[in-house]
Automatic annotation (TrEMBL), chains A, B:
InterPro entries per the UniProt record, alphabetical: dsRBD_dom (IPR014720), RNase_III (IPR011907), RNase_III_dom (IPR000999), RNase_III_sf (IPR036389)
Cofactor field: Mg(2+)
Catalyzed reactions: Endonucleolytic cleavage to 5'-phosphomonoester
Chief location category: cytoplasm
Entry protein name: Ribonuclease 3
HAMAP family linked to this entry: RNase_III
Gene3D superfamilies the UniProt entry points to: 3.30.160.20, Ribonuclease III domain
Quaternary structure note: Homodimer.
Function: Digests double-stranded RNA. Involved in the processing of primary rRNA transcript to yield the immediate precursors to the large and small rRNAs (23S and 16S). Processes some mRNAs, and tRNAs when they are encoded in the rRNA operon. Processes pre-crRNA and tracrRNA of type II CRISPR loci if present in the organism.
Pfam families: dsrm, Ribonucleas_3_3
Active site annotation, chain numbering: D72, E142
Amino acid sequence: MLRPGQPLPLFGFFRRLLGQDRAFRQAIATVIGRTPDNVRLYHLAFTHSSVVRQQGDTARHQSNERLEFLGDAVLGAVVAEYLFRKFPYEQEGFLTELRSRIVNRESLNGLALKIGLDKLVQLDPAQGRAARSRSVNGNALEALVGAIYLDQGYKAARKFVLTRLIKPFIDVKSLIETTANFKSKLIEWAQRQGKTIRYDLTGQPRSGGVMEFSATVMLDDEPVATGMGLSKKQAEQLAAERALAALGV
Amino acid sequence: MLRPGQPLPLFGFFRRLLGQDRAFRQAIATVIGRTPDNVRLYHLAFTHSSVVRQQGDTARHQSNERLEFLGDAVLGAVVAEYLFRKFPYEQEGFLTELRSRIVNRESLNGLALKIGLDKLVQLDPAQGRAARSRSVNGNALEALVGAIYLDQGYKAARKFVLTRLIKPFIDVKSLIETTANFKSKLIEWAQRQGKTIRYDLTGQPRSGGVMEFSATVMLDDEPVATGMGLSKKQAEQLAAERALAALGV
């Protein structure tokens, strides 16, 4: 099969692999701002479960889902500290709400695209489009934070989150404004209509020691819309947002 | 009012304060296994909001609630890493479920008592008993983790969590067993009765980018009990637990 002068195919394979590896290492260094040590971790961070599922369920620990679990936790801690220091006079509920607006799926997907992670994520090409439309990139971003944590430690992961994600791309002020918006918009509308707004709140314990709150917007004592959340504020916020939609405001 | 020889009251006040401070510093050192640097942080960690509320709502940032927010996040990250390393072949759902069993209210309250935090927590004496019956000690433990993180850094907080809480007091194996118990107990019971068990699962997106799952236990296609949770496993587990109660098993 081999013509004279043609390199042995195995060598070609390794050369291609090494070249790819060098390019990947370089891409990671550009994204995280430092040279990765254990490159395997970063490969794992960008391996969507759809790629691994082809190889059967036993291989699922070779996808990025476990790293995503870890990275989500590290990201949560870093953002918690950032907000804790930035808002020394705000209460726990405010910090919780604001953090959830920074680390929610939509926000993480946006951040992942901004730092170009979509070019690094490996999907099963067969179901690529369906999978990509959801939260693939945001999950890969969480997994990347987990990989940096394991590879370089907490300080490096913290620095990545603060200097490459939060500070360049998160406009905390406008997040606070939109947080306040739904409830105040609803109240202003009701005042113009000469109606009253009140929230009916209930809380239910959920497994894992979590409380879940449900808030129902009452317009002149008639229920309009209900929102749920892990804090009263979150539940009311969502209820107000839905009430505005239901009322066509 | 002063008799000769009696020390000036102001001196007595300061001396008492300094003595208390030395004792407090010593108590913290015993609990966390190292000398605290910024003692104010630890005072804050043990100040329940009931003490501060007497001073009006503007002082609420002087209670431990904000530190609790931070400590909860740091604790979550440390436990995530611990489980990630301990169970290299388990999937995300398993790790999430197990973590929630380690850091839930009940578990944290128990850990707090084991390391003697109840003796350090400051409550409003007027409503002491009511407040103490709930999650005061567990919250103080989270706040303490937050204080260590700010005072001594992530590594020290991690070491405290691992060497003073998890390793001495958490029996991961038995946690896993009780996790598996409800579902298998229900299935065994159904088999003895010649009936079939199946779970109807639905998922709903919640604000903050979280999915909440609802699982209904179907006994021969009749709904018996429903559980909710932030993972499918958690929802099924709770549903099974409730079904066992409803069926009187």
